[in-house]
Amino acid sequence: MSLFWTIWISVITLIVVIGCAILLRLTSRNDTGVPEGEPMPHTFDGIQEMNNPLPKWWVGLFWFTIVIAVIYSFAFPTFTANYNGLLNWTSSEQSVMNPEESAELAKTSQSQYQREMNAADDKFGAVFKELAYQPSGEYKDLTLIAKDPEAVKVGQRLYLQNCAQCHGSDARGSKGFPNLTDDDWLYGGEAETIKATIMHGRNGVMAAWKDVLGGDQGVTEVASYVLQLSGRRVNAIEAQAGEEKFVICAACHGADGKGNHALGAPNLTDKIWLYGGSRKAVEDTIANGRNGVMPAWAKVLGEDKVHLISAFVYSLSQEK
């Protein structure tokens, strides 16, 4: 956090706490010249106000909250990201990159998150191993785990905790995030390929071709040809011109436009579009390119959990 934001947050926090204390002190004083419990020398809408003090229990409770706010501000990392407080407490350890580091750090760290994660691993780690491993100590075949209802339930829970933010709770994805239930895979839908994708991540790059294709007209022509491949009705003259230019695209998508799993190049002949299938969306993809990143989860979750998530994801497309 920059020095500016450090000062900004600190000053605002102090102003609020000190302001509450001053306001409480002023409203607790009797400066009216009228004894407490006596009528005030004015009325409002026919109602005469009484000089009644604030309840002592309420004033005491308010002073208590102010004192607690001051103590909390110095005990915990309230002001800045660089200040861990007098108790050296943190909600998480941002430096942790894998389960081994997490387990080691949890022995000495004040991080509540790390302690909870370590306790959960101790409790459920044996369950993960029982579901993921054979008696010989090797991983069970993913296709067999995908048929085990208990293992699939565990994989589903892990999916919901870690993958649903992008792919949705129903795994049907959204714009820019693949649908995992339709058996249409950029890198292949085999069980081990899915596991490799989750373990190591993917970085899919679609280059921007507007300048290479000669501007907007070239983009329009190639878009017409691509839309024609998926069965859409388009301008035949544009599509013919786009077919000639498609040779540039064929290096990744293939001469028939059916894609290439080795490169993560999508099939252009079906009606499944990762970034939208409207003409505008297709033209935008061709003109400006795309860059899709699937993060690697091996160091975050560990291979046991990834193995179970992979089996669950594989099972989704096998139901079709």
From TrEMBL:
The chain crosses the membrane at residues 6-24, 57-76. Keywords: Cell inner membrane, Cell membrane, Electron transport, Heme, Hydrogen ion transport, Ion transport, Iron, Membrane, Metal-binding, Oxidoreductase, Repeat, Respiratory chain, Transmembrane, Transmembrane helix, Transport. It holds the Pfam family Cytochrome_CBB3. It is found in: Cell inner membrane. Pathway: Energy metabolism; oxidative phosphorylation. SUPFAM superfamilies: Cytochrome c. Residues 150-230, 237-317 form the Cytochrome c domain. Binds 2 heme C groups per subunit. The keyword Cell division does not apply. Its cofactor is heme c. PROSITE patterns: CYTC (PS51007). Its main location: membrane. PANTHER family: CBB3-TYPE CYTOCHROME C OXIDASE SUBUNIT FIXP (PTHR33751:SF1). C-type cytochrome. Part of the cbb3-type cytochrome c oxidase complex. Component of the cbb3-type cytochrome c oxidase. Belongs to the CcoP / FixP family. This is Cbb3-type cytochrome c oxidase subunit. The gene is ccoP.
